[in-house]
């Protein structure tokens, strides 16, 4: 086997690290996308019995966006295993306690009832902001494209761009905001 073929084979079977930004993304759509990379479904050598999945680093999980009024209505169930140990927690309560937990639960559910699910979850690395440890940052070689484009915030735009932005109307000088 030539050196070139060995390199191609090594690159095919290597586990790569992918970066995914969760800013303003629906965690359930994101979970379906992340699942493909964790299981290795994007690789031509995928087979259900081999371990060809990659690592995924998800950042900014504190800035996820649930659709509609899911923050108030979505409930997560947990049971301690003891009598009377059942609890139901609203999404906004869980998100304030641990900003990475909703994304973790969404990916765990998206992986299905596979026997490899717990082992596959060890390749998912979640961070509530964009601060990634340098030992993990050194491994990242790819970025996963977000399904929804993130609009630019008005308070982060420079003064010149805001001033020159086309307006629909100008308020009169004697207009009072209530």
TrEMBL record:
Record protein name field: Putative 39s ribosomal protein l13 mitochondrial
Domain of life: Eukaryota
Protein family membership: Belongs to the universal ribosomal protein uL13 family.
Any one GO biological process: negative regulation of translation
GO molecular function terms attached to this record: mRNA binding; structural constituent of ribosome
Transmembrane segments: none
Family annotation (InterPro entries): Ribosomal_uL13 (IPR005822), Ribosomal_uL13_bac-type (IPR005823), Ribosomal_uL13_sf (IPR036899)
Hydrolase in keyword set: no
Keyword vocabulary terms for this entry: Ribonucleoprotein, Ribosomal protein
GO (cellular component) term, any one: mitochondrial large ribosomal subunit
